[in-house]
Amino acid sequence: MPIRTRIAPSPTGDPHVGTAYMALFNQAFANSQGGQFILRIEDTDRARSSAAAEEAIFQALRWAGIEWHEGPDIGGGYGPYRQSERLEIYRRHADELIGKGAAFHCFCSAERLAEMRRQQQANGDTPRYDGRCQSLALADVRARIERGEPHVIRLATPEDGVCRFADGLRGSIEIPWRQVDKQVLVKSDGFPTYHLAVVVDDHLMEISHVLRGEEWISSTPKHRLLYDAFGWPMPAHFHLPLLRNPDGSKLSKRKNPTGLDYYRRAGYLPEALLNYLALMGWSMPDERELFSVAELAAHFDVQRIATRGPVFDLAKLDWMNGQYIRALSTDEFMHRITAWALNRDNLAPLAPLVQARTERLSDVLGHVDYLLGDRRGLSDADFEHKTLSSADCRRILHYAGQRLDELPSWQRDALYGALKSLADAMGVKMRDFLAPLFVAISGRAVSLPLFDSMAYLGRDLVRARLRDALTALGGISKKEAKRLERDYRQLAH
Ligand code: GLU
Fold first, then answer.
1. How close are the terminal C-alpha atoms of the chain, in Å?
2. C-alpha angle 489-400-388 in degrees, rounded to nearest 5
3. Measured in angstroms, how far is the CA atom of residue 36 from the centroid of ligand 1?
4. Bridge pairing between strands 152-155 and 103-106
5. Which residues participate in catalysis according to the annotation?
6. Which pLDDT does position 492 carry in this prediction?
């Protein structure tokens, strides 16, 4: 049987380091077996998906050195590879499920579902659909659809017994059917949910091995039901451990940089990043730590994938990146520096700002050091201010971070608008409000204009700098974070 693996990222938000991690293992496995590795785009969430985010995934994965054999951008024999272009296929399959009694139409209103969930929670039960529409008479269902009543399609699940399935890394897994929700398969807008689309696509694209994150283990019984209902063999499933923050929680942007763009901009070599990611979930038979993607594929054995959640350790990544940088020839080193940031395209947006402030060409580096490299380390003394206390600064930085995370796009004017309205809502004069942000971003009180600097640095680097600044100010305790969270929600948006 030909080996075919895939990743299926959703084009929502910035390309995530976890996507490169999953891609790396799927690619290594396919390449180790002479198989094919496929990139599929899961853009069924219409409100959150965007073409720009999809393009950013292609670029970020390519930068990292991931190469796919089939995908929306390069085509292949199993397309289309974008789920939004496969709606007719899902519709046909949803009809087949209805015909077989494996799925049913549901007309329950959002209010009824919310009330049901509230009651189940009050009784200490796991919220799940109670099955009311499952017993509707066919004629009734037809009439309501004809009347144009909004509805979804849900998966019919057994009430009793246990679902058993094999996980290639973890052995046999058992989940009682009573814990499995009658999942929505087709939303009221006619788009499929992940659960229907993933099964249909993995089957039609002849995926032989699914290597995906462990957060999908609890969904696998739903997928098992669907494979059985269609009469399809289920591909082998391997649930890989998720990357974790040092405190054991799932890697999150609040605690660690998670965007691939951050690692590119901060000056990591892609081959060092991939080596590091490989080491997080796998070990070489001889335990050596430095190895290339090709060496990984040459020695790859799924059974060596770890099942314990690896902790993302930036210090270790720095060490590894240093090893890679020092192993480059001088020529290659110079080439990497130019390709990284010191090139015309990358400097062009800064040129007019710098030129207007330059008397001697030697002034230039002093203007852009914090934009091309890092800014100097900060201490709480840097934030001293005539009217703002350290607690005020922490509040401003924390809220600003929050507000910026809510911004869908990252442009100078949008950044300004978002922070101006935040300052107004907080009742802080804009000049005072910006003071701690200036220090957090540039490491000094005067720099190139703040909003141009933030636009240039990008979301990931700005988020990292705000987080570092908060650490320099003593950090935010869990209790303070809770209080800030509550107060923030009360501010007018
Ligand atoms: N869109 C899902 C994710 O990115 C895909 C999960 C899967 O690989 O099945 O987590």
1. 56
2. 100
3. 18
4. antiparallel
5. 253
6. 64
| Average pLDDT of adjacent 10-residue blocks, the chain of 493 residues | 95 93 97 97 91 95 97 96 96 96 95 92 89 91 94 95 95 94 94 96 98 96 98 97 89 87 94 96 93 94 88 93 98 97 95 96 93 86 91 95 91 96 95 95 88 94 94 91 90 68
Give every CB contact of residue 415 below 8 A, 6+ residues apart in sequence: 404, 407, 451, 454, 455
Nearest atom of ligand 1 to the alpha carbon of 211? 8
Q: Is 170 helix (H, G, I), strand (E, B) or coil?
A: coil
Residue 13 has a pLDDT of: 84
**Separation of 487 CA from ligand 1 center, angstroms?**
34
Q: Would the CB of 9 count as within 6 Å of ligand 1?
A: yes
Q: Whose CA is nearest to atom 9 of ligand 1?
A: 212
CB contact at 8 A, 182 and 157 = yes
CATH of the domain at 32: 3.40.50.620
Residue located via tokens 């957060």: 215
Residue 400 domain flag:
yes
pLDDT at position 333, please?
Answer: 98
* Residue 297 structural domain: 4-84+243-322
Pair (68, 117) in one structural domain: no
